[in-house]
């Protein structure tokens, strides 16, 4: 059995037996599969980052839209009346209000 192992080791090409080659292989294996930030973790982190960037863009757009609506509510009396009628179903004293609901 010992002779078989010797024969196998002897048949391995010399560049593969090189200690730098072996250390390099171990290092690459470690980085790709065993490290805390391996390839799979890196991909998951990149996906999460992209999702967070999309959310950031969405919230920036929402802030701009809400800021514009707030400015209109503070400075435009016609818009204030329209907002009050649509959102809170307010009416003038001499009006009747009919609410239509979809089924």
Short characterization:
The protein has helices at 2-11, 14-17, 19-34, 39-75, 77-88.
Which keywords apply here?
rod-shaped, 5 helices, 103 residues, mainly alpha, 0% strand
Shape: rod-shaped
Strand percentage lies at under 5%
How many strand segments? 0
What is the arithmetic mean of pLDDT?
Answer: 90
User: How much is the radius of gyration in Å?
Assistant: 35 Å
- Count of DSSP helices? 5
First-residue to last-residue Cα separation: 83 Å
User: How many separate domains?
Assistant: 1
Q: Which structural class fits the helix and strand makeup?
A: mainly alpha
Low-confidence stretches: none
- Secondary-structure element series: HHHHH
The main β sheet shows up as:
none
Q: In which range does the helix fraction lie?
A: over 70%
Describe the protein in words:
The chain is an all-alpha fold. The protein has one domain (2-75). The chain is 77% helix and 0% strand. It contains five helices and no strands. The protein has helices at residues 2-11, 14-17, 19-34, 39-75, 77-88. The mean pLDDT is 90.
């Amino acid at each position: 059995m010992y002779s078989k192992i010797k024969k196998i080791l002897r048949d391995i090409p010399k560049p593969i037996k090189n200690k730098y080659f072996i250390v390099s292989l171990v290092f690459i294996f470690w980085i790709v599969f065993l490290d805390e930030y391996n390839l799979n973790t890196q991909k998951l982190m990149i996906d999460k980052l992209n999702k967070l960037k999309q959310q950031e863009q969405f919230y920036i757009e929402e802030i701009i839209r809400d800021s514009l609506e707030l400015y209109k509510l503070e400075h435009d009396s016609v818009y204030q009346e329209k907002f009050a009628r649509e959102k809170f179903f307010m009416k003038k004293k001499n009006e009747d209000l009919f609410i239509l609901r979809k089924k």
